[in-house]
Design brief:
Oligomer: single chain
Distance between the termini: 45 Å
Number of helices: 7
Largest sheet: 5 strands, parallel
Mean pLDDT: 77
Radius of gyration: 17 Å
Structural class: alpha/beta
Length: 209
């Protein structure tokens, strides 16, 4: 099932194998039904090579973006970090940006978000990572996006231009929906969240009304 292939990258439980380098194309499902869910799943399917020693999803997920599109990364990073380990944000100008090429492609899944206007610095970085053998998941607004040729999986999300800045409301809702759906498939997640809840209570993390 295509949706299963996509969600596996954000899971910590067993992930079904999927042939490396196989392209899954996605389009916006105007009906709002299963097709969008299946397509979105592929963006997060960082499949491991067939000869991988691990049956799990990728060891590490790197969230990559630039300029205003990068503002979407903090929220998905916050949610994913609660449900699995080894999730990292990498932005232009950081040491990790140049050093990312040193990561192991077989253990690392790159998820990138790019909406207009398309920053050249992100296009160049993703092209280099793709050439080095990394698997790329992409969220973008159009099949004409310059990152499509460098992505293993992508999802097309509409962007509204209602003011001087584009509106990313649809992308935000979809990211929330996907993480919630993925969370329901992770083994022992309740135990992980209970440990976190206990820690936060002990440290008086939240204001009590």
């Amino acid at each position: 099932m295509e949706g299963e292939h996509l969600r596996a990258a954000f899971r910590t439980g067993p992930a079904e194998k999927y042939p490396r380098g196989t392209r899954r194309s996605g389009t916006h499902d105007r009906s709002g039904t299963g097709k969008l869910k299946q397509t979105a799943g592929n963006c997060f399917r960082g499949s491991l090579p067939q000869d991988s020693k691990s049956d799990d999803g990728p060891e590490k997920i790197v969230l990559l973006s630039a300029r205003i599109s990068a503002t979407l990364l903090d929220q998905i990073h916050y949610m994913l970090s609660k449900i699995r380990d080894n999730v990292q944000i990498v932005l232009p100008g950081s040491p990790e940006w140049n050093n990312l090429i040193l990561e192991k492609p077989e253990d690392t899944f790159i998820f990138t978000i790019m909406f207009p206007r398309y920053p050249n610095i992100l296009i160049t970085e993703i092209a280099a990572l793709h050439k080095a053998g990394f698997e790329i998941g992409l969220m973008t607004n159009s099949m004409l996006s310059p990152l499509i040729p460098h992505s293993s999986y992508y999802i097309e999300v509409p962007v509204s231009s209602t003011s001087i800045f584009d509106c990313y409301g649809t992308a935000t809702v979809l990211l929330n929906y996907l993480v919630r759906d993925i969370a329901g498939q992770i083994e022992n997640l309740e135990e992980r969240l209970n440990r976190l809840e206990t820690y936060e209570k002990e440290n008086d993390t939240y204001y009590r009304i």
